[in-house]
Amino acid sequence: MNIFKQAKFFWTSIVLAVVFAVIMQFLIVGGTLNQFYVNTLFFIGINIILAVSLHLIIGVTGQFSIGHAGFLAVGAYASAIITMKLSLPFPVALLVGGLAAAVAGLIIGIPTLRLKGDYLAIATLGFGEIVRIVFLNIDYVGGASGMTVTHLTTWPWLIGCVVLTVLVIVNFTNSTHGRACISIRENEIAADAMGINTTYYKVAAFAIGAFFAGIAGALYAHNFYIIQPTNFGFLKSFDILIFVVLGGLGSLSGAVIAAILLTIISTYLQSYPEIRMVIYSLVLIVMMLYRPQGLLGTKEITSFFKGGKSAKGGVQHGSKNTVA
Amino acid sequence: MAAKTQLLKVENAGIRFGGLKAVSDVNLELKQGELVGLIGPNGAGKTTFFNLLTGVYVPTEGSISLDGEKLNGLAPYKITKKGISRTFQNIRLFDELSVLDNVKVAYHSLAKHSIFSSIFRLPSHFSGEREMEEKAIEFLKIFKLEGSLHEKAKNLPYGQQRRLEIARALAANPKLLLLDEPAAGMNPQETEELMNLIALIREKFDLTILLIEHDMLLVMGVCERIYVLDHGQLIANGTPEQIRNNPKVIEAYLGEEVS
Predict the structure, then answer these.
(1) d(CA B154, CA B64)
(2) In 3D, which of B84, B89, B81 has the Cα closest to residue B54?
């Protein structure tokens, strides 16, 4: 691939992101944007991180994991302990949240990633539930009544984390390591036969994905004043899974767009919580019927600017993996 | 050809699945630079034997060694790094990756840049990736696939997919190449091209090749020696001429003569 073109695209995106961040910062501080929109914006940011981190595990590496809320919970609680119990600064909490989730990813990943397809899905689902129940039974973190957390998540931290997540995962995917992960998704036996240490890359993808889910957890905890184990049930895992599936398995920009759209939809549906999941499910059913490959299918948003040709490099992929 | 030193030695190798002996007591030797065929009726255990060599299955009996190094029980990716590479009976390309990226995956184990340097786009990432790309393009020219570098592998015509699979296997830099029915599904002209290709790569890469094939024309035409497997056991081994006249082989393929 053309490295010069890549670098140009990279810097353009960075500049755009910075401009966007600064404008929004002024709007938020100046009070032009009312609190409702600010909240939605924060929620979108957190969901983008979650969607992109799960995209690395499911879309790129092809490991069907549905326990992502477990990592979110680990990150949320670990970071809350750092700021609330140990009174350390927020950046430390972000880092610890991410690292704690990554360690959880390693612990759960090493034994379960030898499983394939449905079996892995069930194992990770179990992991998510175990995490929730563990926090439910630890009095140190408040048990069922949860833990109150100071509001520390600010716009610069949020957008910084979003950009970092996207950058790291795009860079990872568009390298030989990302190709190794894609080759596992495409054909694990062949990947093995080509000298790829498949276990290593599955665990690595899992740990990186978990790390960013943990960071999202830290942002989440310090945004909502209170965290409770019920916030991290398997419905949360499904929310994240839906972003990835709806966006198109294997398309990072698809996951981002789906996260934005669905967050907005679900925010507006908040007044009718009973039908929220019904509408979600309907959207998915309609999607699977008329566009089984997801919103963007196998493509990235950038490929539409290059005359509709599929982007080269890593982030282009298959409808083959529509396991859902 | 180079001096004929021993490359692969298989001693009494076998595998049983529960009570079933899929392959047993196989003794096989390959010398550096040889092109050897492995034939046998359907279900004889040829592909299972390949899976033993490449570590997909761990042999339950006997030993396999490459260049004097024991391979039993090593993970498949480690065996590939030691120098055994293969193609598959049913093509296993990375369908959604481009032709170029398929080959690059095979170069992965040679990459020196770490995950860290790729994530933070350090100079070593760029130099590593560029080197890989140049090597892969150079490589694909040998296989006349440079015209479809950015084509998805699944969109190639069948013959080219077979060729790409061989190219990918060779990119992993093997000493021993295992080809599992490379001519399956090819027309006579494609088979002819394949034979030329095999001869070419053998010369160019100083390879030893073990080949499973049903196309007798191809096997008898290119192989120096042939092993015959039936019901999981080696029943014969020799030059094509010897194999052609071996009564055991004829029996395995055609059944016993009525007296």
Answers:
(1) 34
(2) B84
Cα B51 from chain centroid?
10
Residues of chain A positioned with their CB less than 8 A from the CB of B113: 175-176
Domain residue ranges of chain B, discontinuous segments joined by +: 1-83+174-259, 94-173
Provide ipTM, 2 decimals: 0.90
Asked if A144 and A229 count as a contact pair (C-beta separation under 8 A), the reply is yes
Q: Which residue bears the tokens 């998510």? A: A128
- The answer to whether the Cβ–Cβ distance between B94 and A318 falls below 8 Å is no
CA angle A180, A181, A183 (to 5 degrees): 65
* A300 Cβ contact list (under 8 Å, min separation 6): A251, A252, A253, A254, A311, A315, A316
Partner residues linked to B10 by β-bridges? B28, B64
Summarised one tens digit per residue, pLDDT across range B4-19 is 688 999 999 999 988 8
Is residue A3 within 8 angstroms of chain B, CB to CB?
A: yes
pTM of the model: 0.88
Domain ranges of chain A: 37-232
What CATH topology corresponds to B1-83+174-259?
Answer: Rossmann fold (3.40.50)
Query: Which residues face B36 on adjacent strands?
Result: B210, B225
